[in-house]
């Protein structure tokens, strides 16, 4: 994935604005637009195939989990039954749970929640994948995030792909030694997975120790970092940053204004006939 | 009277040559790691003058790395544990000042470059330490450029770390230290991950830093042959104690202390002792001057003949095990083929060495032979089965692999459980498992460690445990990636001797990747030389090393015995002509 020439602060502000916007919006149409726009951002930054697969996995799991849980546990009324998973008359489970049903309103609510979640997740991935860890570190420090925390976050991001590939190697090596993870005995499978965690953890603890020693040997200390640390890089806000932040602020302030107008109308506090088109737009689209 | 004594002492001070105070003073140093009862360092007492170049050697686990960490203050500041005695750098005890202060005087270079570089770009990596010290950006820029010049990587400032070779990464790690302008450089096994050419390049840079800038250098190493000619003092450690501290002229006069500890001695010093010389040459030039007589020529020719006979005495059975045809591999998101149409065959009972520079494709080739990677093009057939259709578990018990990093394999609670893990998975009878366990623990010298947790052992011991655990499956094909890393000479020789003997006895095949020419000449029947992903040689080891141009091309070096034989025959040729 290529780095996008935007200031990391712009990207973080972008995430904050979109994060607030998706909370304000509650129409599936506008939320879908936000989600599609975030996906468009990912696409224009030319992602790697592995990153696309990872994002699809996260988005898929998030969507499924939210829709499924909301559709089943939806408690508001009215609610429309789509189908029943466990009938109340089913022995034990049915009697204990009172039946497990799938509701249409819950499904819709879950879809809206998943769009909010997936939009912020996608923009989060966009920021991490398109920003040099070092720029991100600098940006976080300037946002007054404690240096140690910022350093830990950016270093962890740097090593995540490596940890993933090591985990695959461990699994393959165990299989090469005749170990079968999937067997009928679940205890065997669980103990195999736990044993496989040992080399991954050990290796990472060892790496973290070595990295910690290397970092300390190069004058790293949390106290000094906040007191007098300098930086050879200088991040500057460019024209494109200013334009994007301004556009986003105008857009989000417009949404807030429109929502306030609709709130006043809906609660009988203020009504103007010339704003009827606005009320319709807010109700249908936002 | 008092006035006279005062005058005498002042006069004495004036007429005595000015003696500079030592830059390192270690006094009665003891250190015990947290949770351990046995101290790792025991009563070290030593002083180092500015500008000295010291080789620190000793068997695995003797305390070399621990001593290094006490010198730059990581111990006790970042380690915990119990420390007594003192370590003074320029008169100040490192325990009384933060590591951030000590590291401006003492730079510590670690073994593995990948574990000490964490930025994406060279510039950021070198700037990191200076930024931590609050150095102004203009000065940082100047020092980055100067450090890159010092390590011979001018023009690499904006390069990505990931695009560098192993040797270049280690030089960048050194540049990170140079930028902080330390007066003392500590190097902990700095060449163990490098190919011979990269090793020589790095050592040349360190020699230059020592001589041109009067920087004190201490190198901890197992492989001493290349380092010994550069240093002026040798420390030999064992069991946390400094058992010998001698100037280089005397350090290798007797090789017995090193041999007793299983520590490698410089190859030329070994030849001199074997031939009855009292003098111990450390460089080829010195050896040629010293050995210009028939006895040594006879000796070196004998060694060459021995290598040649080793290459032919094990005629493998005509029983094909591996058939690689036009193997090509390209990693995702890259534009260069790591392997380019490689073809070769390996028969049962062969011991094959794969050699080449860092990044030549050795490990990638090994990963294909274990079905951990799939070819981009071409075919690999093992046991008559196409690897494209196989998954790692299909090869269980038939192919065993030990990577350079043994930690990815070690998953059991004890060494015994680790060794028995494979045979248990194969559902062998209990008696057979017990028999194998006893035999293998003995072969690999692990009996004393059988109840220990594998991940708590030293690097060399973990490597041995990983090899033992893989060997316990008695695989038809055993693959070893850089078995020399972290092993002392004695254990390495023992491991390879036992392993190759046992595997050949059962008519099984061993393939190992290495940079070590001696190891190849002593144990391999065949060598595959890789260069830039291409197979440029497939033949006997003595033939592989007979062509100096080819060897240089793949960043390798022939063993010194061989280089000496060539130099002596050239010298005698000159003599005859005259």
Alpha plus pi helix count of chain B: 22
Rg result of chain B: 26 Å
**Which CATH C-level class of the largest domain in chain B is it?**
Alpha Beta
What count of structural domains of chain B? 4
CATH superfamily of the largest domain in chain B: P-loop containing nucleotide triphosphate hydrolases
| Largest interface pair | A-B, 50 and 69 residues
Taken as a percent bin, the fraction of beta residues of chain A is under 5%
Largest sheet of chain B: 6 strands, mixed
What's the assembly state of these chains?
heterodimer
Helix/sheet category of chain A: mainly alpha
Structural class of chain B: alpha/beta
Description:
The complex is a heterodimer of chains A (286) and B (578). Chain A has 286 residues and is mainly alpha-helical. Chain A folds into 2 domains: 1-131, no CATH class; 146-229. In chain A, 72% of the residues lie in helices and 3% in strands. In chain A, strands 1-2 form a two-stranded antiparallel ribbon. Chain A is flat and about 70 Å long. The model of chain A has no long low-confidence stretch (mean pLDDT 85). Chain B is an alpha/beta fold and 578 residues long. Chain B folds into 4 domains: 24-105 and 183-265, 3-Layer(aba) Sandwich (Rossmann fold), CATH 3.40.50.300; 113-181, no CATH class; 285-308 and 565-577, no CATH class; 316-563, Rossmann fold, CATH 3.40.50. Chain B is built from 22 helices and 20 strands. In chain B, helix 6 crosses helix 7 (166-178), helix 7 runs parallel beside helix 8 (196-213) and helix 15 crosses helix 16 (430-443). The model of chain B is unreliable at 1-18 (pLDDT under 50). The chains are: A mainly alpha (286), B alpha/beta (578). At the A-B interface, helix 7, helix 8 and helix 9 of A face helix 5, helix 6, strand 16 and helix 15 of B.
């Amino acid at each position: 994935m290529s780095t996008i020439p935007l200031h990391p602060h712009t990207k973080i502000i972008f995430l904050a604005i979109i994060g607030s916007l998706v909370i304000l919006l509650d129409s599936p149409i506008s939320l879908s637009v936000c989600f599609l726009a975030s996906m468009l951002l990912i696409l224009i930054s030319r992602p790697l195939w592995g990153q696309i697969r990872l994002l699809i996995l996260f988005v898929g799991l998030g969507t499924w989990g939210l829709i499924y849980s909301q559709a089943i546990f939806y408690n508001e009324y009215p609610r429309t039954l789509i189908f029943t998973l466990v009938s109340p008359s089913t022995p034990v489970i049915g009697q204990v749970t009172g039946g497990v049903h799938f509701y249409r309103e819950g499904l819709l609510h879950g879809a809206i929640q998943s769009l909010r979640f997936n939009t912020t997740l996608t923009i989060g991935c966009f920021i991490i994948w398109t920003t040099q860890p070092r720029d991100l570190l600098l940006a976080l420090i300037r946002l007054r995030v404690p240096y140690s925390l910022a350093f830990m976050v950016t270093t962890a991001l740097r090593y995540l792909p490596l940890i993933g590939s090591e985990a695959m190697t461990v699994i393959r090596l165990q299989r090469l030694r005749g170990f079968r993870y999937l067997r009928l005995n679940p205890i065997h499978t669980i103990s195999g997975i736990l044993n496989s965690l040992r080399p991954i953890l050990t290796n990472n603890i060892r790496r973290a120790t070595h990295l910690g020693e290397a970092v300390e040997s190069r004058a790293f200390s949390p106290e000094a970092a906040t007191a007098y640390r300098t930086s050879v890089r200088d991040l500057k806000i460019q024209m494109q940053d200013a334009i994007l932040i301004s556009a986003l602020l105008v857009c989000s302030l417009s949404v807030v204004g429109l929502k306030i107008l609709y709130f006043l109308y809906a609660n009988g506090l203020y009504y103007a006939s010339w704003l009827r088109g606005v009320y319709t737009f807010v109700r249908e689209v936002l | 009277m008092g006035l006279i004594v005062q005058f005498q002492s002042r006069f004495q001070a004036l007429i005595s040559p000015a003696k500079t105070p030592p830059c390192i003073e270690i006094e009665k140093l003891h250190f015990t790691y947290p949770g351990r009862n046995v101290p790792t360092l025991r009563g070290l007492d030593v002083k180092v003058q500015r500008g000295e170049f010291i080789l620190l050697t000793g068997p695995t686990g003797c305390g070399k790395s621990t001593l290094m960490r006490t010198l730059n203050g990581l111990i006790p500041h970042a380690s915990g544990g119990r420390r007594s005695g003192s370590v003074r750098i320029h008169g100040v005890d490192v325990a009384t000042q933060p590591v951030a202060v000590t590291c401006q005087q003492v730079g510590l270079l670690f073994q593995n470059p990948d574990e000490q570089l964490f930025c994406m770009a060279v510039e950021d990596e070198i700037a990191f330490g200076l930024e931590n010290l609050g150095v102004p950006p203009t000065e940082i820029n100047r020092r980055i450029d100067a450090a890159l010049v010092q390590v011979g990587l001018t023009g690499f400032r904006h390069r990505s770390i990931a695009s560098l070779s192993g040797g270049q990464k280690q030089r960048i790690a050194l540049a990170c230290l140079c930028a902080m302008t330390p007066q003392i450089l500590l190097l902990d096994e700095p060449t163990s991950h490098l190919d011979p050419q990269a090793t020589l390049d790095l050592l040349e840079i360190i020699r230059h830093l020592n001589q041109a800038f009067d920087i004190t250098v201490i190198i901890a190493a197992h492989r001493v042959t290349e380092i010994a000619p550069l240093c002026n003092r040798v420390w030999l450690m064992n069991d946390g104690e400094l058992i010998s501290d001698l100037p280089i002229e005397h350090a290798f006069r007797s090789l017995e202390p090193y041999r007793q500890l299983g520590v490698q001695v410089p190859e030329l010093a070994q030849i001199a002792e074997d031939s009855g010389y009292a003098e111990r040459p450390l460089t080829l030039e010195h050896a040629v001057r010293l050995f210009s007589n028939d006895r040594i020529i006879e000796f070196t020719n004998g060694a060459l003949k021995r290598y040649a006979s080793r290459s032919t005495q094990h005629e493998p059975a005509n029983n094909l095990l591996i058939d690689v045809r036009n193997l090509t591999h390209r990693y995702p998101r890259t534009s260069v083929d790591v392997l380019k149409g490689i073809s070769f065959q390996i028969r049962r009972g062969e011991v094959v060495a794969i050699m080449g520079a860092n990044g030549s494709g050795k490990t990638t080739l090994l990963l294909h032979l274990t079905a951990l990677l799939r070819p981009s093009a071409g075919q690999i057939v093992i046991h008559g089965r196409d690897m494209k259709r196989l998954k790692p578990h299909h090869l269980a018990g038939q192919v065993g692999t030990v990577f350079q990093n043994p930690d990815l394999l070690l998953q059991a609670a004890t060494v015994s459980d680790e060794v028995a893990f494979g045979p248990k998975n194969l559902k062998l009878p209990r008696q057979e498992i017990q028999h194998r366990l006893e035999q293998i623990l003995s072969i690999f010298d692990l009996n004393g460690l059988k109840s220990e947790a594998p991940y708590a052992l030293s690097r060399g011991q973990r490597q041995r445990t990983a090899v033992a655990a893989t060997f316990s499956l008695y695989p038809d094909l055993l693959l070893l990636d850089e078995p020399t890393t972290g092993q002392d000479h004695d254990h390495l020789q023992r491991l390879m001797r036992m392993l190759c003997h046992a595997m050949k006895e059962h008519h099984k095949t061993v393939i190992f990747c290495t940079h070590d020419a001696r190891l190849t000449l002593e144990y391999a029947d065949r060598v595959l030389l890789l260069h830039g992903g291409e197979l440029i040689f497939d033949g006997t080891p003595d033939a592989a090393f007979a062509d100096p141009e080819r060897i240089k091309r793949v960043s390798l070096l022939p063993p010194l015995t061989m280089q000496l034989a060539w130099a002596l025959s050239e010298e005698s040729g000159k003599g005859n002509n005259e």
